[in-house]
Design a protein that fits this description.
Layout lengths: L2 H36 L5 H9 L10 H29 L4 H29 L4 H22 L7 H26 L6
Helix pairs in contact: 1-2, 3-4, 3-6, 4-5, 5-6
Bound molecules: 2-acetamido-2-deoxy-beta-D-glucopyranose (NAG) (4 copies).
Length: about 190
């Protein structure tokens, strides 16, 4: 063997040894995530994509970590929705009725944001998942109030409806994680 070949084989050896020491943990986390998301029924694809796109590998080995990922993703969506409401209201191109609902929704989304920030902290220090389940239920109520403001009043803009559907799915996934922790299945026990 000439020198370049030796260097090549040596590099190959180092990489395969590294791969072997890293693999089991990553593979276990990967399987854990797949198994857990598989339990989340119709939200399975969203579950996988949210976890896969999150860089915090350290949170992917147990349910408490996955809960923190979903709560954080819900929080980020609520923050974006809150800015969206703010900019829509500021632009002044909304009809009066939609404007009125959006202004009232701002309060609900602000309260959701404040609560989610607390829940995320609690989720990370592993507060009892039963309590977190109730706190997340309260967020569900806040977001619902905004949806209910449209009913019988003015048609809900479809762009807003898709934002709501997305954040609501993330909230459901967060709730399912707390149920998995407490009840070992996705429904409330
Ligand atoms: C996913 O869950 C279904 C039941 O909901 C089960 O039949 C299937 O084997 C599971 N797949 C994996 C990869 O765990
Ligand atoms: C879950 O994972 C986190 C982060 O790796 C760790 O700090 C925590 O102790 C784990 N919790 C359990 C119950 O294993
Ligand atoms: C939550 O998500 C944001 C934005 O992706 C990130 O900067 C932050 O570190 C995350 N927090 C936790 C506790 O994972
Ligand atoms: C909308 O509100 C503005 C100011 O509050 C008012 O001048 C305008 O007449 C209202 N438009 C309709 C269609 O009610």
């Amino acid at each position: 063997m000439n020198l370049p070949h030796i260097v090549f084989f040596f590099t190959l050896l180092v990489f395969s040894v590294r791969a072997n020491t890293v693999d089991p943990k990553i593979e276990a986390a990967y399987n854990f995530v797949r198994d857990t998301c598989n339990k989340s029924e119709e939200l399975k694809d969203l579950c996988n994509s949210v976890i896969d796109s999150n860089p915090r590998q350290d949170l992917k080995s147990n349910l408490t970590g996955l809960l923190a990922i979903f709560v954080n993703q819900t929080l980020q969506a609520v923050i974006h929705d809150h800015s969206y409401l703010q900019s829509q209201i500021a632009h002044g191109h909304l009809d009066n009725l939609t404007q009125k609902v959006f202004i009232s929704c701002m309060d609900q989304y602000q309260m959701s944001k404040d609560s989610l920030e607390l829940i995320l902290k609690e989720a990370l220090v592993k507060q009892k998942s039963g309590d977190l389940n109730m706190d997340l239920g309260q967020i569900d109520n806040y977001l619902d109030l905004c949806e209910m403001d449209f009913e019988g009043f003015t048609p809900e803009p479809s762009a807003w409806k898709s934002r709501y559907d997305y954040v609501n799915s993330l909230l459901i996934l967060s709730l399912r994680m707390t149920n998995l922790i407490t009840c070992n299945h996705i429904h409330v026990c």
